[in-house]
Amino acid sequence: MVARLLRRSTAALASRSANYNRNFTTQTQPLRAADKKAPDSKSFAVNMFRGTTVTDQVFPFAEVLTAEQRETLEMLVDPTDKFFQEQNDPLKNDEICDVPKETMDGLKAMGAFGLQVPTELGGLGLSNSQYARLVEVVGCHDLAVGIVLGAHQSIGFKGILLAGNPEQKKKYLPDVASGKNIAAFALTEPGSGSDAASVRTRAELSPDGSHYILNGNKLWISNGGFAEIFTVFAQTPFKDEKTGVTKDKMSAFIVERAFGGVTHSKPESKMGIKASNTAEVYFDNTKIPKENLLGGYGEGFKVAMNILNNGRFGMGAALSGTMRASIAKATDFAVNRTQFGRKINTFGAIQEKLAIMAIKHYVCESIAYSVAGNMDRGFQDFQIEAAISKIFASEAAWFVTDEAIQIMGGMGFMKETGLEKVLRDIRIFRIFEGTNDILRLFIALTGMQYAGAHLRELQKAMKSPGTNLGLVFSEASKRLFKSAGAGSSSKALVPFVHPSMSDQAALCSQAVEEFGQAVEQALIKYRKSIMDEQFVLNRIADAAIDTYAMAAVLSRASRSIEKKLPSAEHEARMARVWCNQAYDRVKVNLGQTRGEKNLQNYKDMSTIAGEICEKGGVAHVGPLGL
User: Fold this and answer.
1) Is the dihedral of CA 306, 98, 122, 263 positive or negative?
2) pLDDT band at 490 (very low <50, low <70, confident <90, very high)
3) 283-304 pLDDT tens trace
4) Please, which pLDDT band fits residue 467 given cuts at 50, 70 and 90?
5) Burial of 85 (0-12, 13-18, 19+ CB in 10 A)
6) Residue 487 pLDDT > 60, yes or no?
C-alpha cells in the first residue's frame, strides 16, 4: 500500500516539477546554468518558502553578549538614558526644527556618533546587539535625534565599515566616529525613489584617469545640510568584456564636501522628525579621487543594498523604545483615570488595547534582537528577516502610539503629552530605507526565488532518479505523508519550545507547512508572471511576517522560562495570544492567494484604481448628485 502511494506521489511530483520548470523564471538573478545547485540557507524565513523549518537562526533565542560586552553595555545604557532625560528637550527641538549644539556636543562626548566603529579607529566598537540596545534608548526619547545619529552611522558611513578598504577606513572612520565630520547617505533622487537602480547622477572618469567627475542631485538627504562626508551612488559607464557593449552600472563613492562643487538646499519643511536636517544635495563637477571608489566599480547597487539590509534592524530596536514609552504613558493614564466610578484600566476595551500594544512591542523587540543576534553570530543570510523587522516595527509603532492617544482621549491629543509629536515622527518610518510596500514585494519575491531554485533542482533530479535517489525519495515521501495525513511535519518546532506553548509551536509549524504549499501553488500557477501579481505577493508577504514573528516570540519566551526570568509567564502568555491570532491571519492571507472570488476581487480593484486615475480622483457620483 505504502509503496503504491509512494509511486503515485513520485509521479505527481514529477508532473508538478516539470510543469514548474517549463514555465517559471524568477525575478532577480535566475539560476541559468543547468547544472547549478540550488542555494542553501540557514535562514528560517527563507526556508519557510519551501515549507521547511530550519531552526539554526531562531532556536534557541540568540544570546551573543560576552561578559565584557554586557558590562560595557551596562555602563552605557543608564548614562545615555539620563542624558536624554536631562539634556534633551524633544518638544523644543521639534519647535525650533533643530538639534541644539549643546545636545550634539554632548552626544559627541559620549561617543554616540561612532557606536560601531572599531575602538582602534576611535569608536566604541559595539556589536549589533549592543548598538540595538542603545538606539532603543534613543528611540524612547526622541526619534528626530535618532534620525541624526542613524543617518550618520546606520547608513551614512556604514558603507565604509562594510565595503571600505583599510586605507579608506583609516582615513575616514576616526573623524566620523568622533562626530567631527557628520556623514550622510545619498541615494534618492527626484526621479529615483524605490527604484534605486534608476539613479541619474553620473560619475565619469577624467581623461587622465586620476579622478571621477560627479554631476547630479540627491533628494531628501538626512543630514544633507551639514554633512561633510557623503556615500554617493552614481551611474558609471561599464564595458562588458565578453560582449564589448558599454552600459551604465551604479557605483558608490566616498565624497567630501571639501572636494568642491557640493551645495545643498534649505532644510525641508516636514510633517515629523522636524529637528533632523533634510535637504537636497547638488554635485556640480565634483572631483572625486579615484581611490574614493567604494566597493568596486559597478558594484554600487550591491553596496547600497548591503548598507540598507545591515541597518534595518536598528530601526526595529529604536521603534521598540518608542513603543515602550508610549505604552508607559497610556498605562499611567489608564490606572489613574476614573470614569463611571471605575478606573478605566478595569474595562475590557482598555485592557484589550493595552494587551495588544504590549504584545506588538514584544514581537517587535523579539524580531529586532533576533536579527541583531544572528548578525553578531556571523550569519549572512538575514535580508528577509531584516525587512520583516523594519515593516513590523514601523507599523506596530504607529498602531501602539495611536492607541496610546486613544486611551488618553483628549489629553492624548494635546501637545504637552508628546504623543502627537511621536505619531508625526513615526510616520516616515514606513517610507524611508525602503518603503514597506516595496519591502513586502522584496520579501515575497526573494523567498519565492529561493523556493523556485529548489523546485528546478527537484525537476532535474526527476529526470535521473537513479542518480538522485535520496532527493527524490525524501521529497516524494514528505508529500506522500502529507497527503495521507500521517507523519506531518506540523509539529516540527514543538521540541524547541517550552511545553506550556506546545500548542502554539504546533500552530507555527503548521503555518510554515501551509505557507510552503501556498508558495509552490502560486509559483506553478503564475509562472514568470508572479512578479506582476502584487495582490497575491502582498498576502504572501503578510503571511511570512506573521509566521516568522510566531517563531521569534516562541523562541524568546521559551528562553525566558528556561532562565526563570521574573516576566517569563507574562511573556509566555503574550506569545500564546500572538501565535493563536497570527495563525488565523496566516490562514486568511494564504486563502486569499487563490480562489475565484478572491482573484476576481483583485481584478475588480485593479479596474477601480484605473477608473480613479482616469477620473483624477474619486470616480463615483456623490449621494446627492450635486
Assistant:
1) positive
2) confident
3) 999 999 999 999 999 999 999 9
4) low
5) exposed
6) no
Strands 202-205 and 211-222: antiparallel
252-265 pLDDT per residue, tens: 999 999 999 999 99
Closest by alpha carbon to 26, among 14, 12, 15, 36? 36
Q: What are phi and psi of 222, to 5 degrees?
A: -65, 135
Q: Is residue 494 part of a domain?
A: yes
How many domains, in total, are found in the chain? 3
Q: Which residues fall within 8 angstroms of residue 334, CB to CB, at 6 or more apart?
A: 343, 344, 345, 350, 354, 407
On average, the pLDDT of the chain sits at: 91
Separation CA 408–CA 326 (nearest Å):
11
- Angstrom CA distances, 35 to 14, 89, 218, 237, stand at 18, 61, 43, 32
The residue segments making up the domain with residue 197 are 183-300
| Dist CA 380 CA 374 (whole Å) | 8
Task: Count CA atoms closer than 13 A to 49's CA, side-chain side.
Answer: 28
Ramachandran quadrant class, 485 (left: phi over 0; alpha: psi -120 to 50; beta: rest): left
Output the nine-digit C-alpha cell for 278: 533634510
Q: Which residues are catalytic?
A: 433
3-state secondary structure of 218: strand
Q: What is the CATH number of the domain that holds 533?
A: 1.20.140.10
Same structural domain, 173 and 212: no
Q: Are 173 and 159 in contact (CB under 8 A)?
A: no
pLDDT, average across residues 162-168: 97
Residues 6+ apart with CB under 8 A from 410: none
- Which pTM does this prediction carry? 0.91
Strand partners, 338: 343
For residue 367, tell me if it sits in a domain.
no
Mark which of 246, 280, 300 sits at the end of a domain: 300
The pLDDT score that the predictor gives to residue 234 is 97
CA dist 229 and 244 (Å) reads 35
Helix (H), strand (E) at residue 578: helix 568-591
305: phi then psi, degrees, rounded to nearest 5:
-65, -35
Q: Which residues contact 592 (CB under 8 A, 6 or more apart)?
A: 539, 598
Confidence band of 527 (pLDDT split at 50, 70, 90): confident
Flag whether 457 is in a domain: no
- 308 found inside a domain: no
